[in-house]
Task: inverse folding
């Protein structure tokens, strides 16, 4: 169990996809497919839709938020985003998605040490208070 | 805990109408994300939400417009998804053009100035030192904060317009003097002046600094070259593409860094890194993803080409002709194109075979036909994003290299300065 801080509250469950490299969603995420497309990024070619994406923070374009909003509308957004600090770009996308479509996703800030413990492929459950649990279905 | 002014509260209650209410409700939730205790006034905004991506960006714009939204402060508009008058020359579909134009109209209706440029600091809307503003567009944020000394947080699309409608922002981050101090020191170590004077130096340095800075404010010491405004523009675009930099200090160049100590506001750097010529050489190499000499298009103008850049290009192409197999495209604003024409520098560029696209760029508008596979550019931002967004391969080079390549019909680059570096 990891105690995170809910930047935008919500519940989600899914497979973790973890990177230690910042990501711009504009030029980095295809909202038609839910795939990471930034060729400079180690996760290039990996589908993040429906997964719990752990990325330390956003970088690059201001349009990251708009891409993520499109992804929520298209059903290709990550199920939740875990970061190391309160990332305003990711949080805003979730808040506007709530306002526009009544659909938001949790954005949870973790201590750097906790973030460092996350591993891709683990099944995680995000709770409303920001707690991250290792989900039973993966036998952890 | 956030305390709202009476006026903020009135907006939130809907006393000013439904659009300010919606904008304020988003702003208040974001104030919580930022940990703000209060909101503060801004006197200008730049809206990056103009970029049309799909139904969501259009629905958001039209929702605000249909609620009667009006901007409360002078507001400029970033690139849109389409060259309103020139899209038919390119591969843009009529459906895309129509929707992107609707999104443009929505923001124009809100009373913003239709600047349609990602270089708003090169228009009449340029802010001044110390001015509190809310800007979107990563290159413009970095430029406004660092080169001008205006104060903006790194605002995302969709929030910029909420700030403009309310005239308010969370009183946090880069709006506050003490948060503008440098945090990381990057020292140029033995980088020769001749390399610093090359016109690729600042975009390459920006690309490298963006990667090194993480989420810290970088201070770069040891720059001996005197950069032009357009070189600082190229640096700003590069540093905010490879990284998340919203403010940098170039010691003895940018206004909040007359000295190293001033850049850090007297504090000690959290981290110090030496930057060598070898680091710069590696960073420059990363910006080139193409191999071989094949070339389909030279692309200039990210951020948008300025009058000074048109002036610089004109004598390089005067009386020459580009190879007809290679397209030569410049992305700029209506204003800059008009000024270049008036100054007499546009004609030789057009005679050379160049095309000019305004209002947008190749990254924001699906304008390139599929046969364009290999690009050459002097823009680190184009070089960074084009491989991922357009699935093209790119060669990065100087302006002179770009022109020579266009003439010869294949990639030609003078690497001598960089091989020796």
Result:
């Amino acid at each position: 169990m990891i105690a995170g801080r809910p930047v935008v509250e919500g519940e989600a469950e899914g497979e973790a996809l973890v990177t230690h490299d910042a990501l711009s969603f504009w030029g980095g995420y295809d909202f038609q497919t839910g795939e990471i497309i930034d060729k400079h990024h180690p996760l290039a070619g990996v589908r993040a839709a429906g997964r719990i994406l752990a990325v330390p923070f956003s970088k690059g374009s201001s349009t990251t938020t708009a891409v993520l909003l499109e992804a929520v509308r298209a059903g290709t957004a990550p199920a939740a985003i875990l970061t190391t600090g309160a990332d305003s770009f990711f949080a805003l996308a979730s808040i506007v998605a709530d306002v526009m479509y009544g659909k938001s996703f949790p954005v949870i800030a973790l201590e750097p040490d906790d973030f460092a413990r996350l591993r891709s492929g683990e099944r995680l459950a995000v709770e409303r208070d920001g707690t991250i649990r290792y989900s039973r279905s993966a036998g952890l | 805990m956030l305390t709202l002014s009476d006026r903020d509260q009135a907006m939130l209650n809907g006393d000013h109408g439904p659009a300010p209410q919606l904008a304020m409700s988003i702003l208040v939730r974001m104030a919580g994300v930022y940990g703000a205790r209060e909101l503060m006034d801004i006197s200008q905004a730049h809206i990056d939400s103009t970029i049309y991506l799909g139904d969501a960006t259009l629905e958001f714009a039209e929702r605000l417009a249909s609620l009667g939204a009006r901007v409360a402060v002078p507001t400029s508009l970033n690139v849109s998804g389409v060259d309103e008058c020139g899209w038919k020359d390119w591969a843009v579909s009529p459906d895309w053009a129509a929707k992107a134009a609707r999104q443009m109209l929505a923001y124009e209706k809100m009373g913003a100035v239709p600047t349609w440029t990602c270089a708003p600091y090169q228009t009449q809307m340029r802010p001044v030192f110390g001015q509190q503003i809310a800007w979107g567009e990563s290159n413009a944020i970095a430029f406004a904060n660092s080169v001008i000394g205006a104060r903006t947080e790194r605002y995302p699309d969709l929030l910029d317009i909420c700030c403009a409608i309310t005239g308010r922002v969370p009183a946090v981050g880069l709006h506050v003097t003490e948060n503008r101090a440098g945090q990381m020191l990057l020292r140029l170590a033995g980088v020769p002046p001749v390399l610093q004077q090359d016109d690729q130096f600042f975009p390459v340095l920006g690309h490298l600094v963006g990667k090194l800075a993480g989420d810290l404010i970088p201070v770069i010491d040891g720059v001996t070259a005197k950069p032009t405004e357009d070189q600082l523009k190229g640096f700003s675009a590069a540093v905010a593409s490879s990284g998340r930099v919203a403010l940098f200090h170039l010691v003895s160049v940018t206004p909040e860094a007359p000295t190293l100590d001033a850049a850090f506001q007297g504090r000690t750097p959290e981290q110090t890194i030496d930057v060598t010529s070898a680091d710069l050489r590696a960073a420059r190499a990363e910006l080139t993803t193409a191999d071989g000499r094949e070339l389909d298009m030279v692309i200039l103008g990210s951020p948008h080409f300025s009058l000074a850049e048109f002036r610089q290009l004109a004598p390089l192409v005067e009386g020459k002709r580009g190879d007809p197999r290679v397209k030569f495209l410049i992305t700029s604003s209506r204003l800059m194109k008009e000024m270049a024409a008036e100054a007499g520098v546009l004609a030789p560029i057009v005679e050379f075979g160049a095309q000019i696209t305004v209002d947008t760029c190749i990254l924001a508008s699906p304008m390139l036909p599929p046969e364009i596979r290999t690009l050459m550019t002097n823009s680190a931002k184009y070089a960074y994003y084009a491989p991922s967004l357009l699935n093209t391969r790119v060669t990065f080079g100087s302006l002179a290299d770009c022109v020579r390549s266009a003439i010869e019909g294949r990639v030609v680059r003078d690497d001598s300065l960089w091989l020796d570096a």
Observations:
- The first strand of chain B starts at residue 39 and ends at 41.
